[in-house]
Amino acid sequence: MSVKPYIIIAEDEDALSTLLQYNLEKEGYEIGIAADGEDALMMIDERLPDLLVCDWMMPKVSGIEVTRRLRVQPETRNLPIVMLTARSEETDRIRGLDTGADDYVVKPFSMVELIARIRAVLRRIRPGLSEEKVEFGEITVDRLSHRVQRAGRDIHLGPTEYRLLDYLIQHPRRVFSREQLLDAVWGNDVYVEARTVDVHIGRLRKALNNDSDFDPIRTVRSAGYSLDSQA
Question: What is the pTM of this model?
Answer without folding.
Answer: 0.57
